[in-house]
């Protein structure tokens, strides 16, 4: 799970974004792209000293200004579960053919989980 | 395999995955956490992260959970020797107690550095530090 894939999978999750200048933005992730540009909704912004606050309905952050993102503790597990569910759904929609196909290595199911 | 990956790029991090790592950021923060993932920019995913601050013989920790660090802010990444970590001669104190002292330390260090670079510039013929003023 690459850092940016994790971020893409974290849509609608709350997160804290700290910018390089020390400002922080707390909000729900709406979208992000491969440059790490992100949009947040319901944002609380604080200045670098942490003594002034602003409330923003929505904001766009250029990826290059980001220092780090703090995401929910359970995100890694949640994203893994979500991936498993999607995979299982895809598998059953193809007609419930679950065994390894012809020419597939034994233990093919295991390969899917990597 | 070793010969195939140029081991000065982020490919060198492959051995560090799922290890407890120390990450130092450009702003001086020291993060300890388990490296779960990285990419070609050295963007990092750290789990069970905590920030550590130091003052003389004391240190304090604050848990900060899962962290996605943008690679360009990383100064240093090092594996923590779990055996040696237990033999630390520093004593742990409450984070809140140390936080203000640490903030004060950082502020006075910054003033000191600014004064130093001003003298170097005015009297010793050094050039001004460009960029963002954090020495990197």
UniProtKB/TrEMBL annotation, chain A:
Q: Give the protein family.
A: Belongs to the snRNP Sm proteins family.
Q: Where does the record say this protein resides?
A: Nucleus
Name listed for the protein in its UniProt record: LSM complex subunit LSM4
**Principal localisation:** nucleus
Q: Which UniProt keywords apply?
A: mRNA processing, mRNA splicing, Nucleus, Ribonucleoprotein, RNA-binding, Spliceosome
Q: Subunit structure, briefly?
A: LSm subunits form a heteromer with a doughnut shape.
Which GO molecular-function terms appear in the entry?
RNA binding
Q: For bias kind Basic and acidic residues, which ranges apply?
A: 80-91
Q: Which GO terms describe its cellular component?
A: spliceosomal complex; spliceosomal snRNP complex
* Keyword Membrane applies: no
TrEMBL record, chain B:
Residue ranges that the Swiss-Prot or TrEMBL entry lists as coiled coil: none
For this UniProt record, the keywords arranged alphabetically read as follows: Cytoplasm, mRNA processing, Ribonucleoprotein, RNA-binding
Any Pfam family hit: LSM
Tell me the ranges covered by the Sm domain, including all copies: 8-83
Q: Where in the cell is it found?
A: Cytoplasm; Cytoplasm, P-body
**Which GO terms fall under molecular function for this chain's record?**
mRNA binding
Going by the entry's taxonomy, the superkingdom of the source organism is recorded as Eukaryota
The UniProt function text for this chain reads: Component of the cytoplasmic LSM1-LSM7 complex which is involved in mRNA degradation.
The family assignment reads: Belongs to the snRNP Sm proteins family.
Protein name from the UniProt record: U6 snRNA-associated Sm-like protein LSm1
- State the organism of origin: Crepidotus variabilis
Q: What is the lineage of its organism?
A: Eukaryota, Fungi, Dikarya, Basidiomycota, Agaricomycotina
Q: Report the gene name.
A: LSM1
């Amino acid at each position: 799970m690459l850092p940016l894939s994790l971020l893409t999978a974290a849509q609608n999750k709350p997160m804290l974004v700290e910018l390089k200048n020390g400002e922080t933005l707390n909000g729900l992730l709406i979208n992000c792209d491969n440059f790490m540009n992100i949009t947040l909704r319901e944002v609380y912004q604080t200045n670098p000293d942490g003594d002034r606050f602003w409330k923003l309905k929505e904001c766009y952050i250029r990826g290059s200004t980001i220092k780090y993102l703090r995401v929910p503790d359970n995100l890694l597990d949640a994203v893994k579960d979500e991936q498993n569910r999607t995979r299982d759904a895809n598998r059953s929609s193809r007609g419930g053919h679950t065994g390894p196909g012809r020419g597939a290595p034994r233990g093919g199911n295991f390969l899917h989980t990597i | 395999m070793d010969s195939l990956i140029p081991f000065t790029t982020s490919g060198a991090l492959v051995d560090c995955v799922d290890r407890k790592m120390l990450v130092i950021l450009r702003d001086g923060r020291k993060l300890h956490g388990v490296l779960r993932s990285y990419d070609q920019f050295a963007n990092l995913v750290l789990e069970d992260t905590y920030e550590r601050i130091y003052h003389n013989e004391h240190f304090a920790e604050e848990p900060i959970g899962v962290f996605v660090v943008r690679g360009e802010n990383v100064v240093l990444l090092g594996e923590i020797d779990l055996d040696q970590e237990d033999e630390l001669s520093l004593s742990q104190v409450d984070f809140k107690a140390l936080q203000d002292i640490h903030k004060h330390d950082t502020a006075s260090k910054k003033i000191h550095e600014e004064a130093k670079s001003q003298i170097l510039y005015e009297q010793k013929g050094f050039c001004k530090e460009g960029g963002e003023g954090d020495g990197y």
